[in-house]
Amino acid sequence: MEKTRPLWANPLQFVFACISYSVGLGNVWRFPYLCQMYGGGVASVVVSFFLSMYYNVINAWGFWYLFHSFQDPLPWSVCPLNSNHTGYDEECEKATSTQYFWYRKTLNISPSIQENGGVQWEPALCLILAWLMVYLCILRGTESTGKVVYFTALLPYCVLIIYLVRGLTLHGATNGLAYMFTPKLEQLANPRAWINAATQIFFSLGLGFGSLIAFASYNEPSNNCQRHAIIVSLINSFTSIFASIVTFSIYGFKATFNYENCLRKVILLLTNSFDLEDGFLTASNLEQVKTYLASTYPSKYSEVFPQIKNCSLESELNTAVQGTGLAFIVYTEAIKNMEVSQLWSVLYFFMLLMLGIGSMLGNTAAILTPLTDSKVISSHLPKEAISGLLCLISCAVGLVFTMDSGNYWFDIFNDYAATLSLLLIVLVETIAICYVYGLRRFESDLQSMTGRSLNWYWKVMWAGVSPLLIVSLFIFYLSDYFLMGTLQYQAWDASQGQLVTKDYPTYVLVFIGLLVASSTMCIPLVALGTFVMRHQRGDTAPLA
Amino acid sequence: MLWPLFFLVTAIHAELCQPADAENAFKVRLSIKTALGDKAYAWDTNEEYLFKAMVAFSMRKVPNRETTEISHVLLCNVTQRVSFWFVVTDPSKKYTLPAMEVQSAIRMSRNRINNAFFLNDQTLEFLKIPSTLAPPSDPAVPIWIIVFGVIFCIVIVAITVLILSGIRQHRRNNDGPSEVEDAEDKCETTITVENGIPCDPLDTKDGCLNDAFVTEGERLTPL
After folding, report:
1. Which of A339, A378, A387, A456 lies most in the core, judged by the most C-beta atoms within 10 Å?
2. What is the pTM for the complete model shown?
């Protein structure tokens, strides 16, 4: 008796799974960054495998911050004291306390990628916990994943709404929002803006990872996939914009806070140097008083002048950070200045974890579905054991990212493991379905499954516009890689308390090449292999 | 006749309390408006008297200096900021006390002095006297490990429960189909009895699998 394929309990679960998967960390950190700067079969699995290896490290960091949010005061809001208790730790003084907590306490980062250090036990523990969580959710297949995704899809929205209300009522939030909505027209003409937007959508919707295919394979055939496709895309875009509003109000708050701090320091400096009455200098009369002092006490003013910083709200808003920096440095810096910061911190990192785990479920589904579908493996091992083995292997490899230089390797995976290969995979998928399998055949399949005919919009898009767009993106990316020359990375310098640019050593460049090649070469290799096998068998059956 | 003496005394006072030059003088800076806002008090001679009293009080806590009087503390160069210099003289009022003594005395009673004026280390500054920063409280077991341990245990328990129930279900499923695959006549599940007449066993939900036809079917209709 054949075991029926597990199905989603109701179509809502499928939609939520897709939303939960696509509404990931990318919406929270990548899209707002891009807004600020300018007014993506065997290959999929390989890319998904790379992704799952390094993505869960983010969840590990999320757990780390979540556990540390239960302290008063928050550990990233104060600098630790130095050895003789007369002042603060030197590295923390040069950088900010949030940066210190991220680079020193969380990552314990080494000065360059060559210095490996050992595995830190604290992040390693958090990574193991993160993988156990993921294992718990995928243990039972769609049965358990289906229930978990209700949670992982809806809870982040609740938290985002709470944060929206809190963010909009913060002092200085309007500055951030005004900044977000004023387009920088000259940037719209920059092709890089459009490339980054396209990459973001690819990543965000999780195309080419096979996760959507995996999720969809658990659907009933009569499922109205056209409607679901539109729903998921719209919700994903809406969420990105929604998250941007929240992010920018928090940006505005942080920038205004820092700007006012800067002004306060300048006022204090002037008051102390010229023995002016306390409270006489305010932000409004600062400029007038400065000119007055420059004229009346020129010599003294010229002594003090080099120390006076030019405070500007614009420059504070311009400090854009993306990716892990935004989530863990900028947000925590804004949170530590809010009242009841522990509550906001816990809420925020809980949401981040929900998003991350939702995306991880998609990734692992992409890998597990082909594995459990293949008769070879699933006849020997039950599904729990396969998932367990996958989690174990990924966890073991992920321990690399908990070493001292782990963050540098993480950035490599983040930048190179998926970008180019994704484009290629999606391109091949589109061409395969439209031209090799035949658009007409696909259309008739859809009609027989859903009972609805295909709208001309889809046909035009799939056959013409999308492949063109993807090919042009591909060309842009390649030309960008070749024009940049040798690749560089940002390393944390403890003595200066800031990031410095360094070149990658040769063995790292070789590794990057292998990484990109292994995912992109899979498609032609497998195609070649299949072609050779069929040629040997002399079978004339069409390609499935 | 007493006037020359008076002038002499004030002259000596003025010499003793000299800003910047005297090595035993300390500059003090107060930011009352910043600290208190609307509730700020004005700095007048009465407040200066209180300050002298607090300094004398701190000096009295030092061994050998228990006889310091308020008149031994001299203030000078009071500006609008509010800032001024002060020195502490010895009982004979001839020379000023060494800076180290005054510094250690002030450091010990810093909290009392701050509280007397409703200020803190940042708003009542003694330049050249560093404040001792309070070390952060370090609990014996870091809090994050406790939270981690709790969540870790919950997850492990949940995984074990799920795996065990999965194994049990698997075993039950294995026992079920293995009965069905035995001889055909063993495929009766529950025979419903209506009016004393047993209903047709083939009406049951799953039906019986006739092994004779299964393999034939697979050979003739490949997918």
Report:
1. A387
2. 0.74
